[in-house]
Amino acid sequence: MGDSDLEELRKQRLAQLQSQYKGDPENENSQKRKEEQARAHEDAKNSILSQILDQPARARLNTLMLGKPEKGKLVENMLLRMAQTGQICSKIGETELITLLENVNAQTQQKKPTVKFDRRRAALDSDEDF
Question: Which single residue of 1, 41, 46, 49 could bond 5 by disulfide (Cβ 3.0 to 4.6 Å)?
């Protein structure tokens, strides 16, 4: 490849990147639409949670989300599902949320990792070689 070929490829690539990031209004509109949908979904989720949780329970759920985000999302989705299916009739207090969290912990209890020492290898190594 000559210098002119490389320069032409660079110009094509630069034009492609510029059109991808700047000039494509269809891409910008779809990206804005996705952001709006995500924002609307988040607002709806927060609205439902504020309807089914009282203030201390909501604070505890937010604290859980900060400490253990995956478990917080799991509990949040569970609460939303329960509200949508009609299993929750009144506001959930902090004590009810605590019992729900304990049930979730009991169900998702994972095996704790164990460390296993291989002592045979240590037996082959002796300090008497000195």
Answer: 1
